[in-house]
């Protein structure tokens, strides 16, 4: 399991057209910083001898499990549900301040007007 592709999916699905370039730049910087941290730290976690060796072996799993757990929580609390939503509906969710974890139950103005069926 990996969250490596999440930042690119988030940029394309959730960003408003006005902020898409800034969102893409932010996602790229965060992805690269995370990649740098893991590229530098994993060899030390797995090394059994030498300067800075930690000899964690299979215990390095905990580092990745904690990281994926935190990413899962972040996705749950910070990322709105985009399934079946148009870009305008996602923008409306942000404008109205709907919490991302409740966005799947939100009925947009497009759905209220009868222009689209609500999907749970």
Automatic annotation (TrEMBL):
<keyword id="KW-0472">Membrane</keyword>
<dbReference type="InterPro" id="IPR036259">
    <property type="entry name" value="MFS_trans_sf"/>
</dbReference>
<keyword id="KW-1133">Transmembrane helix</keyword>
<dbReference type="Pfam" id="PF00083">
    <property type="entry name" value="Sugar_tr"/>
</dbReference>
<keyword id="KW-0812">Transmembrane</keyword>
<feature type="region of interest" description="Disordered">
    <location>
        <begin position="100"/>
        <end position="120"/>
    </location>
</feature>
<feature type="transmembrane region" description="Helical">
    <location>
        <begin position="59"/>
        <end position="78"/>
    </location>
</feature>
<dbReference type="InterPro" id="IPR005828">
    <property type="entry name" value="MFS_sugar_transport-like"/>
</dbReference>
<protein>
    <recommendedName>
        <fullName>Major facilitator superfamily (MFS) profile domain-containing protein</fullName>
    </recommendedName>
</protein>
<dbReference type="InterPro" id="IPR050360">
    <property type="entry name" value="MFS_Sugar_Transporters"/>
</dbReference>
<feature type="transmembrane region" description="Helical">
    <location>
        <begin position="26"/>
        <end position="47"/>
    </location>
</feature>
């Amino acid at each position: 399991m990996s969250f490596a592709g999440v930042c690119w999916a988030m940029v394309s699905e959730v960003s408003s057209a006005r902020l898409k370039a800034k969102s893409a730049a932010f996602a790229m910087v965060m992805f690269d910083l995370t990649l740098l941290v893991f590229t530098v730290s994993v060899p030390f976690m797995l090394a059994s001898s030498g300067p800075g060796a930690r000899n964690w072996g299979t215990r390095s799993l905990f580092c990745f499990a904690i990281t994926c757990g935190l990413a899962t929580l972040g996705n749950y609390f910070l990322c709105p549900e985009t399934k079946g939503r148009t870009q305008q509906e996602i923008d409306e969710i942000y404008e109205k301040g709907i919490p991302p974890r409740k966005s799947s139950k939100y009925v947009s103005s497009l759905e209220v007007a009868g222009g689209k069926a609500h999907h749970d």
